[in-house]
Amino acid sequence: MENISHSKTDKFSFLADSLKWDKEKVIPPEVFSKLMEIGTLRRCVSAASERENVWDELSYDLSCIGKESASLLSLIIVNLMASTVISKYVQPSDNMPLLQGIESGENLVAIGFSEEGAGSDLGAIETSLSKGTRKGEFLLNGGKKWISGAMYADHFLVYARHESEVGFVLLKKDSPGMTVEPCANLSAFKAAGLGNLSFEDCRVSEEQMLGFTDKMLSAASSLALQLGRFAVAWGSVGMQSKCCELAFQRSLHRKVFGSSLHKKDLNRRKLALMRTNYALSLAISQKMTNAWIESDMNKHNLTLIAKYSCARHVKETSDLLAQIYGALSFQDNNQVNQIVRDAPVFSTIEGTAEVVELVIGTPYGALT
User: Fold this and answer.
1) How far is it, in rounded angstroms, from Cα 131 to Cα 141?
2) How far apart are CA 199 and CA 315, in angstroms?
3) pTM summary value
4) How many domains does the chain have?
């Protein structure tokens, strides 16, 4: 993939208003229509089902989106993860009414893992199913927190427990017994539509229950997380590209003690580190994409390492950007502030940096 700083990104020109989305805390519906039009949402579904080799195109899409809007990127991430699980258990030929709009990418799907006491430790989830009064009916009770895209989603894929088994429940957004409330006072990902879900005797049919008797459920969940990490890596690459652009603009136009900032050695060292971080992130992400294109057996290890590396680099790069811009970095509603707020989140989502370190640090997680 060529350096996205110099690529033709005309098809993503609609992302130019992302700062306005953060200010208003909402992404306009026409943005999703545009993502359908240019094929991004379809590529997410294709990648999730692994029926088409769209990895290079999807990588480019993710980097362009990450460059302009971490909020929108988070919606793409959860939709990609949810589509992965659905494709493993439901085929288009099943003619499942709930699938309408999902297979084409037209309808967005949010995935609910996290709870108040269950983040990385999914074994601690309390959301559960119990048998209802009607034959083949189950009742879902519990709740999910911090769900990206909850306020935009047409469907929800909810991770739940039933007796000794765990699996997913596929729900429509207007399902009786389900309540969706927005997360308040967010300092990052302001337009991502994060929400909390609560379930009170939400009726579920057996058709809506995916993976409860399947011993391969953990593999499907793992693949979903890996594709989420794939997206985080490329989104981080895009954001670092934006950081470098903004840093060089500031360095060329800002004067300090009578000369341009770019002539100061201390500033040049910052720019050198930013460019190096970006180049390293781009290289490891491209290697990751090539592994998926070639179905390399090492693709999962590479994805984990790419996510970990890129998330660290984008945090460091955004910190350097803040140093170059000074107080402007902490003034609300400008591009630098938007990046400084959003960049640290990449180290937390789809596996915190600490959890990922534990996996990479084992012999089985080593790069081969």
Assistant:
1) 11
2) 36
3) 0.88
4) 3
